[in-house]
Write a structure and sequence with these properties.
The chain has 2 domains: 2-151, 2,3-Dihydroxybiphenyl 1,2-Dioxygenase, domain 1 (Roll), CATH 3.10.180; 164-312, 2,3-Dihydroxybiphenyl 1,2-Dioxygenase, domain 1, CATH 3.10.180.10. With 314 residues, the chain is of the alpha+beta class. It contains 8 helices and 16 strands. The chain has an 8-stranded mixed β-sheet with strand order 2-3-4-1-5-8-7-6, with helices on both faces. The chain has an 8-stranded mixed β-sheet with strand order 10-11-12-9-13-16-15-14, sandwiched between helices. The relative contact order is 0.16. It has helices spanning 15-25, 66-73, 88-97, 144-151, 177-188, 226-231, 250-257, 272-281, and strands at residues 2-11, 32-36, 41-48, 51-58, 77-85, 102-111, 117-125, 136-140, 164-173, 196-198, 203-211, 218-224, 261-269, 286-289, 295-298, 307-312. The chain is globular. Residues 4-133 form the VOC domain. Pfam families: Glyoxalase_3. This is VOC domain-containing protein. It comes from Thermogemmatispora tikiterensis.
Protein backbone atom coordinates (compact mmCIF):
# COMPACT_ATOMS: atom_id res chain seq x y z
CA UNK A 1 0.00 0.00 0.00
CA UNK A 2 1.08 3.57 -0.69
CA UNK A 3 0.79 4.89 2.83
CA UNK A 4 1.86 8.54 2.57
CA UNK A 5 4.35 11.14 1.39
CA UNK A 6 7.75 9.80 2.41
CA UNK A 7 9.84 12.82 1.45
CA UNK A 8 9.97 15.92 -0.73
CA UNK A 9 13.13 16.73 -2.71
CA UNK A 10 14.36 20.30 -3.15
CA UNK A 11 17.35 20.83 -5.41
CA UNK A 12 19.76 23.56 -4.25
CA UNK A 13 23.08 24.91 -5.52
CA UNK A 14 24.61 25.72 -2.12
CA UNK A 15 23.75 23.01 0.39
CA UNK A 16 25.22 24.72 3.43
CA UNK A 17 23.63 28.04 2.52
CA UNK A 18 20.25 26.40 1.95
CA UNK A 19 20.52 24.54 5.27
CA UNK A 20 21.20 27.80 7.08
CA UNK A 21 18.33 29.54 5.28
CA UNK A 22 15.76 26.89 6.18
CA UNK A 23 16.98 26.59 9.76
CA UNK A 24 17.61 30.23 10.67
CA UNK A 25 15.07 32.15 8.57
CA UNK A 26 12.25 29.72 7.90
CA UNK A 27 12.35 27.94 11.25
CA UNK A 28 12.55 24.46 9.70
CA UNK A 29 15.48 22.86 11.47
CA UNK A 30 17.96 20.72 9.56
CA UNK A 31 19.07 17.71 11.58
CA UNK A 32 20.56 14.98 9.39
CA UNK A 33 22.03 14.13 6.02
CA UNK A 34 25.16 12.85 4.33
CA UNK A 35 26.47 11.67 0.97
CA UNK A 36 25.00 9.20 -1.52
CA UNK A 37 27.90 6.91 -2.46
CA UNK A 38 28.56 6.84 -6.25
CA UNK A 39 25.54 9.11 -6.93
CA UNK A 40 27.42 12.41 -6.91
CA UNK A 41 25.04 14.06 -4.44
CA UNK A 42 24.84 15.15 -0.82
CA UNK A 43 21.82 16.12 1.26
CA UNK A 44 20.47 17.60 4.46
CA UNK A 45 17.27 16.37 6.11
CA UNK A 46 14.38 18.23 7.76
CA UNK A 47 12.03 15.83 9.55
CA UNK A 48 8.42 17.07 9.76
CA UNK A 49 6.09 14.51 11.30
CA UNK A 50 6.39 11.27 9.33
CA UNK A 51 7.64 13.09 6.23
CA UNK A 52 10.96 14.76 5.60
CA UNK A 53 12.29 17.44 3.31
CA UNK A 54 15.49 16.60 1.48
CA UNK A 55 17.71 19.49 0.48
CA UNK A 56 20.00 18.01 -2.15
CA UNK A 57 22.87 19.22 -4.29
CA UNK A 58 25.31 17.83 -6.81
CA UNK A 59 28.85 17.53 -5.47
CA UNK A 60 30.36 15.35 -8.24
CA UNK A 61 28.85 16.26 -11.64
CA UNK A 62 30.59 13.37 -13.39
CA UNK A 63 28.74 10.91 -11.11
CA UNK A 64 25.33 12.64 -11.02
CA UNK A 65 22.38 11.82 -13.25
CA UNK A 66 22.13 14.14 -16.29
CA UNK A 67 18.50 14.93 -15.36
CA UNK A 68 19.70 16.37 -12.04
CA UNK A 69 22.15 18.68 -13.77
CA UNK A 70 19.53 19.75 -16.31
CA UNK A 71 16.94 20.48 -13.63
CA UNK A 72 19.39 22.40 -11.45
CA UNK A 73 20.43 24.45 -14.50
CA UNK A 74 16.83 25.70 -14.69
CA UNK A 75 17.11 26.97 -11.12
CA UNK A 76 16.64 25.76 -7.59
CA UNK A 77 13.33 24.26 -6.53
CA UNK A 78 11.38 21.04 -6.31
CA UNK A 79 12.74 17.99 -8.06
CA UNK A 80 10.30 15.29 -7.02
CA UNK A 81 8.75 13.50 -4.07
CA UNK A 82 8.58 9.90 -2.92
CA UNK A 83 5.57 7.85 -1.92
CA UNK A 84 6.02 5.59 1.11
CA UNK A 85 5.21 1.93 0.60
CA UNK A 86 4.78 -0.68 3.31
CA UNK A 87 5.16 -3.54 0.78
CA UNK A 88 7.15 -2.27 -2.18
CA UNK A 89 7.55 -5.63 -3.94
CA UNK A 90 3.77 -6.16 -3.93
CA UNK A 91 3.10 -2.58 -5.02
CA UNK A 92 5.49 -3.02 -7.95
CA UNK A 93 3.82 -6.28 -8.96
CA UNK A 94 0.42 -4.59 -9.01
CA UNK A 95 1.77 -1.72 -11.10
CA UNK A 96 3.35 -4.09 -13.61
CA UNK A 97 0.06 -5.98 -13.85
CA UNK A 98 -1.51 -2.69 -15.01
CA UNK A 99 1.18 -2.33 -17.67
CA UNK A 100 3.17 0.36 -15.86
CA UNK A 101 6.93 0.36 -16.66
CA UNK A 102 8.50 -0.03 -13.20
CA UNK A 103 12.24 -0.16 -12.53
CA UNK A 104 13.29 -1.87 -9.34
CA UNK A 105 13.05 -2.12 -6.44
CA UNK A 106 16.74 -1.35 -6.06
CA UNK A 107 18.71 -0.74 -2.90
CA UNK A 108 19.98 2.72 -1.96
CA UNK A 109 22.18 3.88 0.87
CA UNK A 110 23.23 7.06 2.65
CA UNK A 111 26.36 7.33 4.78
CA UNK A 112 26.70 9.92 7.52
CA UNK A 113 29.99 11.61 8.34
CA UNK A 114 30.39 9.42 11.44
CA UNK A 115 30.23 6.24 9.34
CA UNK A 116 26.69 5.20 10.20
CA UNK A 117 24.40 4.36 7.31
CA UNK A 118 20.77 3.75 6.50
CA UNK A 119 19.26 2.09 3.44
CA UNK A 120 16.06 1.70 1.51
CA UNK A 121 14.41 0.01 -1.46
CA UNK A 122 13.29 2.27 -4.29
CA UNK A 123 11.19 1.74 -7.42
CA UNK A 124 11.00 4.23 -10.30
CA UNK A 125 8.44 4.85 -13.02
CA UNK A 126 9.75 4.79 -16.61
CA UNK A 127 13.33 5.85 -15.78
CA UNK A 128 15.59 5.89 -12.69
CA UNK A 129 15.96 9.68 -12.51
CA UNK A 130 15.65 11.49 -9.21
CA UNK A 131 14.52 14.66 -11.01
CA UNK A 132 11.57 13.53 -13.08
CA UNK A 133 7.84 14.11 -13.21
CA UNK A 134 6.69 10.84 -11.63
CA UNK A 135 7.08 10.30 -7.88
CA UNK A 136 8.94 7.12 -7.01
CA UNK A 137 8.16 4.48 -4.39
CA UNK A 138 10.35 3.89 -1.35
CA UNK A 139 10.50 1.55 1.63
CA UNK A 140 13.07 2.23 4.35
CA UNK A 141 15.03 -0.25 6.42
CA UNK A 142 13.27 1.07 9.53
CA UNK A 143 9.86 2.46 10.38
CA UNK A 144 8.03 4.60 12.89
CA UNK A 145 10.10 6.41 15.52
CA UNK A 146 13.24 4.48 14.63
CA UNK A 147 13.02 5.76 11.04
CA UNK A 148 12.53 9.34 12.27
CA UNK A 149 15.48 8.90 14.66
CA UNK A 150 17.79 7.75 11.86
CA UNK A 151 16.60 10.42 9.43
CA UNK A 152 17.35 13.14 11.97
CA UNK A 153 20.97 12.02 12.18
CA UNK A 154 20.48 9.30 14.83
CA UNK A 155 18.91 11.72 17.29
CA UNK A 156 15.42 12.83 18.22
CA UNK A 157 14.01 15.10 15.50
CA UNK A 158 14.22 18.72 16.68
CA UNK A 159 11.37 21.15 17.24
CA UNK A 160 10.69 23.57 14.38
CA UNK A 161 10.37 27.22 15.50
CA UNK A 162 7.94 27.79 12.60
CA UNK A 163 5.58 25.35 14.31
CA UNK A 164 5.40 22.92 11.37
CA UNK A 165 3.66 19.71 12.42
CA UNK A 166 3.19 17.78 9.21
CA UNK A 167 3.19 17.88 5.41
CA UNK A 168 -0.43 17.62 4.32
CA UNK A 169 -0.02 17.61 0.53
CA UNK A 170 2.21 18.19 -2.46
CA UNK A 171 1.05 19.42 -5.86
CA UNK A 172 2.18 18.52 -9.38
CA UNK A 173 1.58 21.05 -12.16
CA UNK A 174 -0.02 19.51 -15.26
CA UNK A 175 -1.28 21.03 -18.49
CA UNK A 176 -4.46 18.90 -18.76
CA UNK A 177 -6.17 17.88 -15.52
CA UNK A 178 -8.52 15.24 -16.98
CA UNK A 179 -5.69 13.49 -18.79
CA UNK A 180 -3.48 13.76 -15.72
CA UNK A 181 -6.14 12.27 -13.44
CA UNK A 182 -6.48 9.24 -15.72
CA UNK A 183 -2.72 8.79 -16.13
CA UNK A 184 -1.75 9.06 -12.46
CA UNK A 185 -4.68 6.89 -11.38
CA UNK A 186 -3.53 4.19 -13.80
CA UNK A 187 0.09 4.37 -12.67
CA UNK A 188 -0.44 4.36 -8.90
CA UNK A 189 -3.76 2.55 -8.60
CA UNK A 190 -5.30 5.43 -6.65
CA UNK A 191 -8.70 7.04 -7.09
CA UNK A 192 -8.71 10.75 -7.86
CA UNK A 193 -11.12 13.16 -6.25
CA UNK A 194 -13.55 15.14 -8.38
CA UNK A 195 -11.97 18.35 -9.71
CA UNK A 196 -12.08 21.42 -7.46
CA UNK A 197 -10.85 24.98 -7.83
CA UNK A 198 -7.97 26.58 -5.97
CA UNK A 199 -10.29 29.24 -4.54
CA UNK A 200 -9.57 28.09 -0.96
CA UNK A 201 -5.93 29.11 -1.46
CA UNK A 202 -6.74 32.09 -3.69
CA UNK A 203 -5.16 30.29 -6.65
CA UNK A 204 -6.32 30.32 -10.28
CA UNK A 205 -6.05 26.55 -10.71
CA UNK A 206 -8.20 23.47 -11.14
CA UNK A 207 -7.09 20.57 -8.96
CA UNK A 208 -7.69 16.93 -8.14
CA UNK A 209 -6.36 15.03 -5.12
CA UNK A 210 -5.19 11.44 -4.64
CA UNK A 211 -5.69 10.50 -0.96
CA UNK A 212 -3.04 8.21 0.53
CA UNK A 213 -3.28 5.32 2.94
CA UNK A 214 -2.47 7.20 6.16
CA UNK A 215 -5.74 9.13 5.85
CA UNK A 216 -4.37 12.67 6.20
CA UNK A 217 -2.02 13.16 3.25
CA UNK A 218 -2.58 13.40 -0.48
CA UNK A 219 -0.83 14.45 -3.61
CA UNK A 220 -2.58 16.80 -6.00
CA UNK A 221 -2.55 17.67 -9.67
CA UNK A 222 -3.10 21.31 -10.63
CA UNK A 223 -3.81 22.77 -14.06
CA UNK A 224 -4.31 26.42 -15.03
CA UNK A 225 -7.92 27.51 -15.29
CA UNK A 226 -8.72 27.85 -18.99
CA UNK A 227 -10.36 31.27 -18.59
CA UNK A 228 -7.53 32.56 -16.40
CA UNK A 229 -4.92 31.32 -18.87
CA UNK A 230 -6.65 33.08 -21.74
CA UNK A 231 -7.11 36.34 -19.84
CA UNK A 232 -3.50 36.37 -18.64
CA UNK A 233 -1.82 35.05 -21.79
CA UNK A 234 -0.03 38.37 -22.26
CA UNK A 235 0.88 38.88 -18.61
CA UNK A 236 4.61 38.67 -17.87
CA UNK A 237 5.56 37.01 -14.58
CA UNK A 238 6.65 39.33 -11.80
CA UNK A 239 10.39 39.14 -11.07
CA UNK A 240 11.02 36.40 -8.54
CA UNK A 241 7.43 35.14 -8.63
CA UNK A 242 7.68 32.52 -11.38
CA UNK A 243 6.79 29.69 -9.03
CA UNK A 244 3.09 28.88 -8.65
CA UNK A 245 2.16 31.37 -6.01
CA UNK A 246 -1.41 32.74 -6.22
CA UNK A 247 -0.45 35.29 -8.86
CA UNK A 248 -2.27 35.57 -12.20
CA UNK A 249 -0.75 33.24 -14.83
CA UNK A 250 1.91 31.94 -12.42
CA UNK A 251 0.98 28.28 -12.92
CA UNK A 252 1.02 28.67 -16.69
CA UNK A 253 4.45 30.31 -16.53
CA UNK A 254 5.71 27.48 -14.29
CA UNK A 255 4.63 24.90 -16.88
CA UNK A 256 6.32 26.87 -19.65
CA UNK A 257 9.61 27.11 -17.74
CA UNK A 258 9.82 23.76 -15.95
CA UNK A 259 7.14 21.52 -17.49
CA UNK A 260 5.11 18.94 -15.60
CA UNK A 261 6.71 18.89 -12.17
CA UNK A 262 6.14 19.19 -8.45
CA UNK A 263 5.27 22.84 -7.87
CA UNK A 264 4.18 23.36 -4.24
CA UNK A 265 3.99 21.81 -0.80
CA UNK A 266 1.45 22.49 1.94
CA UNK A 267 2.55 22.37 5.58
CA UNK A 268 0.26 22.40 8.57
CA UNK A 269 1.44 24.45 11.54
CA UNK A 270 0.29 24.33 15.14
CA UNK A 271 -0.49 28.06 15.22
CA UNK A 272 -0.66 30.02 11.96
CA UNK A 273 -0.55 33.39 13.70
CA UNK A 274 2.56 32.37 15.64
CA UNK A 275 4.13 31.19 12.38
CA UNK A 276 3.34 34.55 10.83
CA UNK A 277 5.00 36.37 13.74
CA UNK A 278 8.08 34.18 13.40
CA UNK A 279 8.38 34.98 9.68
CA UNK A 280 7.90 38.70 10.36
CA UNK A 281 10.66 38.64 12.97
CA UNK A 282 13.03 36.98 10.51
CA UNK A 283 12.26 39.23 7.55
CA UNK A 284 10.60 36.56 5.42
CA UNK A 285 8.28 37.79 2.65
CA UNK A 286 4.91 36.06 2.27
CA UNK A 287 1.38 36.52 1.00
CA UNK A 288 -1.47 36.01 3.47
CA UNK A 289 -5.10 35.47 2.60
CA UNK A 290 -7.78 35.20 5.27
CA UNK A 291 -10.79 34.07 3.23
CA UNK A 292 -12.27 31.60 2.45
CA UNK A 293 -9.63 29.96 4.66
CA UNK A 294 -6.37 31.24 6.08
CA UNK A 295 -3.41 30.40 3.86
CA UNK A 296 0.09 31.84 3.93
CA UNK A 297 2.26 31.52 0.80
CA UNK A 298 5.98 31.97 1.48
CA UNK A 299 7.88 33.79 -1.25
CA UNK A 300 10.05 31.27 -3.17
CA UNK A 301 13.03 33.61 -3.08
CA UNK A 302 13.52 32.57 0.56
CA UNK A 303 12.74 28.87 0.07
CA UNK A 304 15.29 28.06 -2.67
CA UNK A 305 12.55 28.31 -5.31
CA UNK A 306 10.14 25.92 -3.54
CA UNK A 307 6.61 27.30 -3.15
CA UNK A 308 5.43 26.52 0.40
CA UNK A 309 1.92 27.13 1.71
CA UNK A 310 1.10 27.15 5.42
CA UNK A 311 -2.30 26.10 6.79
CA UNK A 312 -3.54 25.93 10.35
CA UNK A 313 -3.42 22.35 11.67
CA UNK A 314 -6.95 20.99 11.43
Amino acid sequence: MLTGIDHVIIGVKDLEGASALFTEQLGLTVSGGGRHPAAGTANRIIVIGDTYLELITVIAPDEAQPAMLERLAKGEGYWNFALASDAIEADCQRMRARGVPVLGPTRGELRASDGRSRSWLRADIERPDLAQRYPFLIQHDSSGEERRFRLAGWQQPPHHPLGAVRVSSVTIAVADLDEGRRRFSHIYGLEASPPYTGEADHWEALLAAFPLGNGFQSFELAAPLALASAENSLVDPLPGWEQPLPEPASLRHFLQKVGENLCRMTLEVADLQAARRYLDQHGVTYMLQEQPQAALWIHPDVTCGAAIVLHQLS
